């Protein structure tokens, strides 16, 4: 059976997947345990114990049967005298009496392949792959752990593990060093605020675990209850502070060391795996063995690891083997070793023998009572010969705060020592810093200006930082020489998408699009997902191409912009999805030359990649670096809100919504700076098509992202107001517009003020590059005198702007007429006035002039009404199918989302039904009924019309929210209404089959009771109306008599019903209304400003004339578009194109405003108390580090002082010897130490 590859496994929102019994049913088929099969008598137990540690009665008959072979065996061996069988202890572990989350455990044979175990831990148990493994060796059993060792484990080891994302591996038992590590991890988890959790793994011998029988269950335990005894002495119980336990079974009971071989093999296997998410790192996982104290048997374990080239860090002073190794490396290492002797090789033998003798002395010094000294000496010699892999940690010379730095330096040295291909140790040190996410070390030691970094040095670490979501390193690399244009090719961008985790939403979306492409290009070759592998894996990986990314972005962004990445794939002119799929299939089967090209917009592409994965800090950094910051922030907001709608996980959904709101705030903030800097440029910024975002504008992206806060900005509302009023002054009174509407020649008078477009154009004639830019921004986009379509080109000789296709200036009469009638406010006013006339005509027809069917009717007024509705239908058809610049797909989506469009369709359908019915005598009354209901629908349409009003608009929004509350109220009311109505009818009338009376008495009358209409005479007094008890008459329709025996119960039910409905439910509804009003009132203005955009766009696109005269505008448009072939340019007010110098200036100006905004926000953040505390903490850490350096200098001075004393003593001895010698005669007496110091002091002064 195959196990899924852990390299493609991932976790969403940091959650650990829970594995059920069914999902782990494969474990006994692969994982085995060991059982003793040969009873080898222990000579010290009188035949009661086997050398495996089990009692005789615990062995089966097979193990006890072969007495002859048993007698021949003197020493029990696990490989020979035990056999394997399916494991019977695995699953989840629940420590009884503790609030700790469950742990995982597994009983496994000592010869189990490490790859299977590592896959189980990462893929099935959900443990995050480590960036470092620290294996704590020694300090087992009841040995007492020294205080300073506890501090090193608590402050040094745990802090280093937390900052690097490390695994700590110990025996996992509640004794010795492993207990200290568990307590340190527990205390750190309780005090730390970081979301990174330390993973602790216990590898213990199965036979040593106390109460291990509680874990045995052949089907697996989900969850196994494990009781830990609270005793004063340390028992080998499982520690509650570990996430996973590997219980190694070698067939022995009560004996240590059986797990050492498996543990060494597992550590060696981990050391050849790659760091990072999905194994995407550029270095192997560092594995460090930390030796604390230890028995002599630890030397064998150390010898195995050193042969596998695993480094060791020894805590000298902790006792045991640690002190022996420290003594060997410090005192024996200085002995000269002769590598070549005389011709007989005696020199080498003598030097080796001398080394062995010195090592033997050290072994005897530290372990005087050990009997098997020869074996210890051999292992100590092996350790000494591999001394390059062993590093010493002194408790006197180094503090606990230097422990992490010591670990990093150990790995940096060893990695460079064994990697001959490395140019310098700095590259490997940088890779370690990236793997451990220590940007502080990288800044202070690697990027301090003393090292020159090339592009080749930073390329692989940059990929590691991107894939593993380390934005600080990405920022650091881009600040220190990494050119993003050289780095990001289309191939590397595809590789980034292929590195996505399987359990992410974006991965599933890309996988679905990949399946579509494979089904088209290779029909029948694609197979659905299985539990063990995906089709991408079967083909050697996730073969995501840019086409899948483009399709996913199209799903998320919709028709707001054109498809992404079509240019490198050469799909610009292909509109059919099927043709595009076939073309991409051919391109990918060919040489794929596009992959070697540079990405056209690298920062925007990386921004999209980070947003799709919900990488908050990474996405914000890429937004800071990308072009068109306002549109980029709105695009990120759009993507995240669409993703949150598709995501099913609550935590991930909330984080996406928070990040989307953050991007909307960024767009709002940057645009605020732009609007304060230059109003006209900020208006241009909102309506300019973006080449980066495939022709989208800020307004289009904001409406697609539901960015209500952005639309509430004064600058956006000012633009909308300017578009709304056209070329008229915004201060124009409404009565002037109404008067001019009915008397059009007044537009040529001074009754209405118009903006002086001509004067503005003369003032903005370009005299310099700066002025010509301002003039362009001020005059082109928002002049409604004519529909302008400007195309700015560069002139290299004159450095000026030439506006092509500029229409000629029209005569005053035509120009002023267009300025008035082409303004959206005029169109709105005309539609409102004519709509009121339409409602009056409709009411007149229904109330006064609604005649009989033909030939008596309809009347002339009714025919006028029919024609009026016909023009309304024509306008709906035009808006649906003939609105230029918008696709039919977008219109369908708009129709599906817009409530008022559905309302219009209902009104038109009801009118057509009523019209058809009223033409026939048989359905005349039904037709009149339909038309009456339709009149109500048309009248309620006024709510949408007046949503543009500043005072009425927010109140309409509040009413809409309250209608939702009414539905909840009606649900509770219907429950009580049904309960009371049925009971009341059944108690008062024993038999009444008339459905009309039943409906009225069960639903209608109880509903009227709420408003006080209670017929007491029918309930509590004697019935005086004529009635009958004859069943035949009752069935014929006669009124039945009331039952009087249960009047008292009816009264009680009425009291309860009125109490609940009139007091409880009505007050509940009032409370709901009050709550809704208080919540919506704060944001109602924002909602109204957001909806105002849609209304302005609607009336901006409408013809100038209102129904029924709009038919004239429809004929004019038909002739203009389909006969004269004149394209529409009115949409350029909302989507303009800038090219050349103007586009670059606008982009530069926006970038400057973004930098100002970021600088301002940084100052505000630094001024916060929390940031001040962080800076103070950093300063304190710096002082502590300097004090540690001073302590190091002090230690060095002490060593130097001792050496000086030795030199002084030697010189004194030489001086005395020479003085006593007769061969040398001095010309003067020797100086004394006192005289020298005195003369030195006198000379100094």
From TrEMBL:
Domain TRPM SLOG, first and last residues per copy: 104-326
A single GO cellular-component term on record: plasma membrane
Domain Ion transport residues, every copy: 835-1084
Record domain TRPM-like: where: 445-713
Example GO molecular function: ligand-gated calcium channel activity
Alphabetical keyword list: Ion channel, Ion transport, Membrane, Transmembrane, Transmembrane helix, Transport
Annotated InterPro entries: Ion_trans_dom, TRPM, TRPM-like, TRPM_SLOG
Subcellular location(s) per record: Membrane
Membrane-spanning ranges: 820-845, 900-921, 966-983, 1048-1070
Bias kind Polar residues: ranges: 1234-1245
KW Membrane (keyword) present: yes
Membrane topology, from the record: Multi-pass membrane protein
Record keyword Transmembrane present: yes
Pfam families: Ion_trans, LSDAT_euk, TRPM2
Coiled-coil regions listed: none
Region named Disordered: 1-24, 1222-1245
Domain of life where this protein originates: Eukaryota
PANTHER family in UniProt: TRANSIENT RECEPTOR POTENTIAL CATION CHANNEL SUBFAMILY M MEMBER 4 ISOFORM X1-RELATED, TRANSIENT RECEPTOR POTENTIAL CATION CHANNEL, SUBFAMILY M, MEMBER 6
Protein name: Transient receptor potential cation channel subfamily M member 4-like
Lineage of source species: Eukaryota, Metazoa, Chordata, Craniata, Vertebrata
